[in-house]
Amino acid sequence: MSLPSRSALRRLIKFGYLTAPPPRLSYPAPSKWRPAICRNNHIEYIFRTPRRPLHTATDNPQETPQRPEAPESISLKSDPNLDPTTLPLSCPGCGAFSQWISPDEAGFYTISRKAVKEYIREASSKLGEEGSIAGDIQAEDSKSSVENDTPAGIQPDEELATDPEDTPPPDEIKVPFCDRCHNLLNHGVASPIPYPPIQYIEDILAESPYKHNHVYHIVDAADFPMSLIPNISRILDLAKMRTQNRRAKHVHYGGGGRKPALSFIITRSDLLGSQKEFVDHLMNYILNVMREALGPKGDKVRLGNVHMVSAHRGWWTKEIKDKIWEEGGGVWMVGKTNVGKSSLLQVVFPKSPRAIPPSLPRGTGKFDLKGKPEETDQPIPGELKEIDPSEEPDEADILLPPPQQVRQYPVFPIISSRPGTTASPIRLPFGRKRGEVIDLPGLARAGLDDFVKDDHKPSLIMKKRLKPERMTIKPKQSLILGGGLVRITPLTEDLIVLAAPFVPIQPHITSTEKAIAMQAQEREVPNVPNLAKEDVAQSIKSAGVFEITNDVTKTYGKPSTASPDQKKKKALEKLPFRVLSTDILIEGCGWVELVVQVRVKDLEAGVVPKVEVFTPQGKFAGSRLPMCAYSFLLEKQQRAARHMGKRPVRSVRRSKGRGS
After folding, report:
1. Which end of the chain is more exposed for a tag (fewer CB within 10 A), N or C?
2. Which contacts qualify for 130-134: CB closer than 8 Å, 24 or more apart?
């Protein structure tokens, strides 16, 4: 690991050496990152609260404080050469700071693990070759204190640290994951961690070391737009979204500097369609739904910063990767849990230098084709802030942890279907001081995860594109999802509702009386597993009454067996019925498409089809404009049926040859 910079070292020495293990990380208690220097040339930033002491000072300043011995539970008597202080600064999988005290906390390393022992041995031998930073400081203490008033160990004209990129990282040493990440990858189980509040993200953004920052709000396509934060620009003090006025400003300033820009990324868009061209056609629909979710101001904004990507298929990821490299600076991944932030980071992270676009002339502060900054007086987009020593914050107020080593192919955060995988910010720098991508912990996302048995929690996540069968809900019947977890009951009599459940949990149609008994856990149905816990029946409440009022007659009202001439004669406006639809959203799970056919006379008489949804605590449900996703499956089936029923067309050239 490279030595700290001169200014950072001057600030760190006055605090002495670390003598206390990292305490438990907790939210939303006031969090403080505190730096300290260890005896083995290893720098650590530990998490603490203001009331908890960092270390105990010694009476003799020349005496080197010792790190406390490890507990008996992790005794190192079997191999005294294993020094746990040589563990990595933080786990590269979840970002939690390394510790060997609390097995139930994130970042815990079992010293007896084979991968951990190999890393400690290799890191200890490498640090032994490079020397100890503590010995160097003590050797220079007397000389510098006599010559000038510079703090002990600091030479005025000597740069104690080199560029982090000038020191090659130890690529041959494989950094192990902590026990929690190890269990997530191999067994799919892990202890839960608390979720940070939105104010925590705001405080971290305020400590960005870059002048130019860009926030990417990650939104999940499975339950879009329930994972959207409508007021994210106001809460995080970001640049306002551009209005439809052509003179709207591109860049906004406030609070003493340039405000971070905002972009929306809708991940896992491959769940909406099998082809990229088809998903691109849904952009107008996505924008309409987003405008409605943003509230009254949604119709006034331009929404040119919305992207639909798929990390699994690689749709539109190259464009975002080039944009990250071109802009540089701080790139922040903000979003709720289980929306695909870590998966997207692995795809859009600029692993190698890229050429600047032809439209950008040289000498504008951009990077040249070799990835090096040009000699120009113009500011580089991702340049670091110039910190005034008088205004420099105290180490006790630091929230943002230090970045990782600059590598072309760094160790990326792990990907898991369990919520709350990332425990602490993970900083991945790219280029020579070009910028860095920061994966932030996921915000709390309301969902059914707390009311489902542990064995069935992974089944709530939609992992692939679904092809459901349309189910018929007759009068006095209800649709049950997850064996009683969610119930959808039509309220309008004498109407048949067609339901297409785009959810990964099993649906079931039964009478409303039996459906109520299933939600009360008084009745079980064979081959229909009940995912809910035992005490969930007491919390079942109504999540609201939703009206089915969106006209989709143009999509579902066409007679599929009619000839083209008959379609022209029978215009849609003259049909005696209307086809209405809506999408019922299940937060963190998916949606259910409801379609009903109503006579025009009944609509004129004021008949409005309605359904009532019952969920735990009356939450986790909503509605949106219908996507008509089932119509895509119908068109595909019709094309396949026509292809199978048609006779092969004989070639014109062959027919002429036979006739002659």
Report:
1. C
2. 130/41, 131/41, 132/39, 132/40, 132/41, 133/3, 133/37, 133/41, 134/17, 134/37, 134/39, 134/41, 134/64
User: In angstroms, rounded to a whole number, what is the distance separating the alpha carbons of residues 142 and 417?
Assistant: 56
The span from the CA of 380 to the CA of 360, in Å, is 13
Residues 6+ apart with CB under 8 A from 644: none
> d(Cα 63, Cα 42) in Å, to the nearest integer?
19
Cβ-based neighbours of 267, under 8 Å, separated by 6 or more: 218, 219, 220, 221, 309, 310, 311, 339, 340, 341, 343, 344
Contact predicate 260/253, CB 8 Å: no
CB–CB of 584/613 below 8 Å? Answer: yes
The verdict on residue 323 lying in a domain is yes
Record the tokens describing residue 640, joined without a space.
Answer: 């396949």
Write out pLDDT tens, residues 478-532: 999 999 999 999 999 889 999 999 999 999 999 999 999 999 999 988 889 899 9
Inter-residue contact 211 to 329 (CB < 8 Å): yes
Q: Which token pair is 524?
A: 């079980």
| pTM of the predicted model as reported, rounded to 2 decimal places | 0.77
**Quick check: is 176 in a domain?**
no
H/E segment holding residue 507:
strand 507-511
**543, 226 contact by CB (below 8 A):** no
As a three-state string, the secondary structure of 64-87 is CCCCCCCCHHHCCCCCCCCCHHHC
β-pair type (497-502, 507-511): unpaired
Question: Which pair of tokens denotes residue 121?
Answer: 């041995």
Q: How many CA atoms lie within 13 A of 442 on its CB side?
A: 28
The domain tally of the chain equals: 3
Task: Identify each DSSP E strand in 287-393 by its residue range.
Answer: 306-308, 329-335
Range of the domain at 50: 6-147
Look at strands 329-335 and 213-220 and give their pairing.
Answer: parallel
Task: Give the integer Cα–Cα distance in Å for 10 and 233.
Answer: 37
pLDDT band at residue 61 under the 50/70/90 scheme:
very low
Is the domain of 411 the same as that of 326?
Answer: yes
| 236 Cβ neighbours under 8 A, 6+ residues apart | 198, 201, 202, 205, 215, 260, 334
Per residue, the 3-state secondary structure of 526-580, as one string, reads CCCCCCECCCCHHHEEEEEEEECCEECHHHHCCCCCCCHHHHHHCCHHHCCEEEE
Residues in the chain: 660
pLDDT tens digits for range 181-229:
999 988 888 877 888 999 999 999 988 989 999 999 999 999 999 999 9
Question: Do 407 and 281 fall into the same domain?
Answer: yes
**How large is the average pLDDT for residues 98-117?**
89
For 304-326, b where at least 16 C-beta lie within 10 A, e where not — what string?
ebbbbbbbbbebbbeebbbbbbb
Task: Check if the beta carbon of residue 625 is closer than 8 Å to that of residue 292.
Answer: yes
Question: Strand (E) positions, 567-641?
Answer: 577-586, 590-599, 610-616, 621-624
User: Are 20 and 96 in the same domain?
Assistant: yes
Residues facing residue 510 across a β-bridge: 478
Q: Is 33 helix (H, G, I), strand (E, B) or coil?
A: strand
| Residue 549 counted as domain residue | yes
pLDDT surpassing 70 at residue 148 = no
Q: Is residue 174 part of a domain?
A: no
Instruction: Please check whether residues 480 and 340 belong to one and the same domain.
Output: no
pLDDT digits (tens, 9 = 90+) for 270-327: 999 888 988 999 999 999 999 999 988 888 888 989 999 999 999 999 999 999 999 9
Q: What is the mean pLDDT of the chain?
A: 76
